[in-house]
Structure formats: structure tokens, C-alpha cells
């Protein structure tokens, strides 16, 4: 059973010109840009979306209060259709691939990170958007507090991962050591003089060629990797800089001020994993990721239900693509006997 939410746009008519977006009077925090910038009630989800068409969401004045309809008047292609309703479709399938992904760890569950409390403590998800040319500041890295370029930035690794404490996950999230290095390299591309410090437990950049990626990052001037647990201790009342305390083997405990602190958040299973498991009759492991056959990690305990990507457990994009391809081939193999026997 498929539930299709209305887009309130006729996809066959919308050309993605975004005239409707210009005229829409509703502004609210853009979820794709991690709520750093504003979006409109009618918008394209993100610039590389496929199909590249607009949709209207729940913040629309017409849907909430039965008023406005400006977008209908300005769309030259008559693509706005505010009368659309949710659709439910039943389709018969021979196999299913669950590729429902991950949920980034929410650092608000542990107060010691001061996320949401200190303005210049941000998550790596937010930093990803700051680095992007389609991000909230068109690729400029700016601080929330004063919209200035941060010069000295710290990354704190294993946020929510490798922690056997309430609110933490005991497993390694597998991707954060490598994505943090990518973020450092891109930060240095933006500002060659930037000082970047990565506080880590130990660097786990495993994967093809990732050791070389680490060596490349480590050799950049102004970049240092420090193996230490840290505490975020204070926000400077005027500059809004953040002080991080950490231990060193030679100089004892040190306190250092940074313009910005990036929390390298780990990967949680999808929020609705339990519900999904019930619906599809599959088992989960004790972390709530899909329980897979260790010798065939695309296989669940139920014949015909396959899994790919981060729902298998924390994994990066290339591995997600491989496993999607593997799951697809196994569906083909399973359904081979039906090839050419069905009209659709
Ligand atoms: C800050 C950060 C930076 C990262 N940087 C990198 C990087 O540089 N390189 C790299 O290789 N990896 C990186 N990763 C890891 C990367 O995000 C994952 O490997 C990748 O997103 C996994 O892809 P996926 O398709 O399995 O899951 P997702 O990307 O989570 O996609 C799953 C999709 O399924 C949708 N969905 C869920 N449930 C349903 C449902 N019931 N019906 C319909 N749709 C549904 C979701 O909305 C989502 O769009 C990073 C991760 C983080 C947190
Ligand atoms: S009807 Fe809704 S989406 Fe269209 S312009 Fe008005 S508020 Fe925006
Ligand atoms: S990948 Fe690195 S930062 Fe992420 S949980 Fe593992 S060790 Fe920690």
C-alpha cells in the first residue's frame, strides 16, 4: 500500500521556473538548510531534486486558513492544483527493497554539548549546508551569532557514538571521521589560513583509500588532530566564542577558545524502524537497524524483503550505492521465473 501526499502541483505542467516561490508571502525556516535560512510555503525541496518541480507544504495560507491563492494567479503553466487530495495506491510486487536510511543523532538529548544553548556550537549537518554553494549563505561559512567568517574551528568526534551512556549509541557511526576530514579540506579551500582542530577518540577512516585521505588532511597547514575527550565549557558573553577543555599527554588539561565548534553527529536508525519492522515482518538488531544475513547483508529474515544503505547500519554513500545495486540484482534473481509472464 502506497500513501502519496499531495504536492498541490500538477507535475506534468510544472517547469520548475519558481515564479510561484517568488510571489508566495509565507516564509518559514528551511528544513533542507537545517533551518538556518528561510523558505516559502511553495518551493522546490532542494536545487538538485528529481523531478525538479515545486510543491506546497502545510505552512500554506490556503491550506491553513483558506486564503491567498497568489501562486495560482502567477503560474503561467496552470500547474497549481490546490484541490489535490492524498492518494492511496495498492500495487502487487514480488519483492521490496527497504532503503529508508538514517536519522542524524540529535545532540540536544545530552546537555553537555550545549547545542541550541551556545550559538556557535553547530552540528556537522548544519556545517554541510554552510559549505554548500546552494546552502543558506551560498557557500560562505558564517557564524550564527554575527554572520562573520569563523577562523578557528574545532570538530568534536563521536557525538552520540561509541558512548555506553544514556542517550548515546555504543556503536561507531563509521562515516563521521571521514566526513569531518572532508569538511576540514573544504574549509581550507574556503580560507587557506583557517585553523582546524579535530578532537577524536581515534580516527576510524576505514574504506578504500581513506587512509590516504587522512594523511592528506593531516598534512594541511593549520590542521591538527588531537586525541582527547573534550568538554564544551563556556560561551564568551561578548564574542560568543566557545571554550573547549581537553587533556594532553604532556601539558595536562588545556582550555582553548574557538570561533565555532562543529559536533560530528553519528547516525541513528530511522525513527520509525520499529513500526517498519512490524509492517514488513522483518527483524531488527539490538540497535534498531535492520537485522541482516552477515554473508549477504542485503538479505533480511523475510524472503523477498531486501535492505540497502544506512538502514543496514551506519554506512557511507558509495557503500549505499553498492548495496542498492546488490539488492536490485537479488530482486531480479528472485523474480526471474516471472520474466515475460506478466503484462505489467
Ligand atoms: C553530516 C553528515 C555528512 C556526511 N557526509 C558524507 C560524505 O561526505 N560522503 C559519504 O559517502 N557519506 C556521507 N555521509 C553519510 C551519508 O549521509 C549516508 O551514507 C547516506 O545518506 C545513506 O544513504 P541512504 O540512501 O541509505 O539513506 P538516506 O540518505 O537517509 O535516504 C533515505 C531516504 O528514504 C526516505 N524514506 C524513509 N522512510 C521512507 C518511507 N517510509 N517512505 C518513503 N521514503 C522514505 C527518507 O526521507 C530519505 O530521503 C554523511 C552523513 C552525515 C550525517
Ligand atoms: S496559496 Fe499557499 S503556496 Fe500559494 S502563494 Fe499562497 S501561501 Fe504560498
Ligand atoms: S567514525 Fe569516527 S567519529 Fe564516527 S563514531 Fe566512529 S570513531 Fe567516532
Would you kindly provide a written description of the structure presented here, covering whatever features stand out?
The structure is a single chain. This protein is of the alpha/beta class and 344 residues long. It folds into 3 domains: 2-89, no CATH class; 96-101 and 269-338, FAD/NAD(P)-binding domain, CATH 3.50.50; 103-267, 3-Layer(bba) Sandwich (FAD/NAD(P)-binding domain). The chain has helices at 19-23, 61-65, 70-74, 124-131, 176-190, 210-218, 273-280, 317-334, and strands spanning 2-4, 27-29, 38-40, 42-43, 55-56, 87-89, 96-98, 103-104, 121-123, 152-159, 195-200, 223-227, 230-235, 242-248, 252-258, 260-265, 267-268, 305-307. The strands form 7 sheets. A 5-stranded parallel β-sheet has the order 9-16-10-11-12. Strands 13-14-15 form a 3-stranded antiparallel β-sheet, with no helix packed on it. Helix 4 packs parallel to helix 5 (176-190) and helix 5 (176-190) crosses helix 6. The longest helix has 18 residues, at 317-334. It is globular. It starts with a strand and ends in a 10-residue tail after the last helix. Bound molecules: flavin-adenine dinucleotide and iron/sulfur cluster (2 copies). One iron/sulfur cluster is lined by residues 157-158, 161-162, 172-174, 176-177, 201, 204, 264, 266. One iron/sulfur cluster (SF4) is lined by residues 24, 26, 41-42, 56, 60-62, 68-71.
Amino acid at each position: 500500500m502506497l500513501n502519496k501526499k499531495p504536492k498541490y502541483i500538477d507535475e506534468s505542467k510544472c517547469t520548475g521556473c519558481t515564479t510561484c516561490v517568488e510571489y508566495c508571502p509565507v516564509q518559514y525556516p528551511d528544513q533542507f538548510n537545517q533551518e538556518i535560512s528561510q523558505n516559502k510555503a511553495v518551493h522546490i525541496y532542494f536545487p538538485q531534486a528529481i523531478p525538479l518541480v515545486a510543491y506546497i507544504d502545510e505552512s500554506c495560507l490556503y491550506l491553513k486558513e483558506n486564503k491567498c491563492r497568489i501562486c495560482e494567479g502567477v503560474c503561467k503553466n496552470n500547474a497549481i492544483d490546490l484541490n489535490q487530495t492524498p492518494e492511496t495506491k495498492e500495487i502487487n510486487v514480488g519483492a521490496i527493497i527497504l532503503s529508508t536510511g538514517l536519522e542524524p543523532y540529535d545532540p540536544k538529548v545530552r546537555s553537555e554539548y550545549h547545542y541550541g544553548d551556545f550559538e556557535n556550537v553547530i552540528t556537522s549537518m548544519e556545517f554541510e549546508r554552510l559549505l554548500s554553494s546552494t546552502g543558506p549563505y551560498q557557500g560562505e561559512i558564517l557564524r550564527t551569532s554575527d554572520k562573520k567568517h569563523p577562523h578557528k574551528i574545532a570538530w568534536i568526534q563521536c557525538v552520540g557514538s561509541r558512548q555506553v551512556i544514556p542517550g548515546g549509541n555504543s556503536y561507531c557511526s563509521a562515516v563521521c571521521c571521514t566526513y569531518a576530514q572532508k569538511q576540514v579540506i573544504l574549509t581550507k579551500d574556503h580560507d587557506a589560513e583557517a585553523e582546524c582542530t579535530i578532537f577524536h577518540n581515534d580516527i576510524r577512516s576505514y574504506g578504500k583509500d581513506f587512509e590516504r585521505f587522512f594523511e592528506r588532511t593531516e598534512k594541511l597547514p593549520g590542521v591538527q588532530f588531537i586525541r582527547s575527550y573534550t568538554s564544551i565549557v563556556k560561551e564568551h558573553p561578548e564574542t560568543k566564542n566557545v571554550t573547549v577543555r581537553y587533556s594532553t599527554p604532556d601539558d595536562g588539561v588545556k582550555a582553548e577558545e574557538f570561533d565555532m565548534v562543529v559536533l560530528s553527529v553519528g547516525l541513528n536508525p530511522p525513527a520509525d524502524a520499529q513500526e517498519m519492522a512490524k509492517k514488513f515482518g522483518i527483524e531488527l538488531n539490538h540497535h534498531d537497524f535492520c537485522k541482516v544475513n552477515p554473508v549477504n547483508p542485503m538479505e533480511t529474515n523475510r524472503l523477498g524483503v531486501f535492505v540497502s544503505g544506512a538502514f543496514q547500519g551506519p554506512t557511507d554513500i558509495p557503500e549505499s550505492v553498492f548495496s542498492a545495486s546488490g539488492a536490485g540484482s537479488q530482486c531480479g534473481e528472485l523474480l526471474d521465473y516471472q520474466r515475460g509472464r506478466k503484462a505489467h
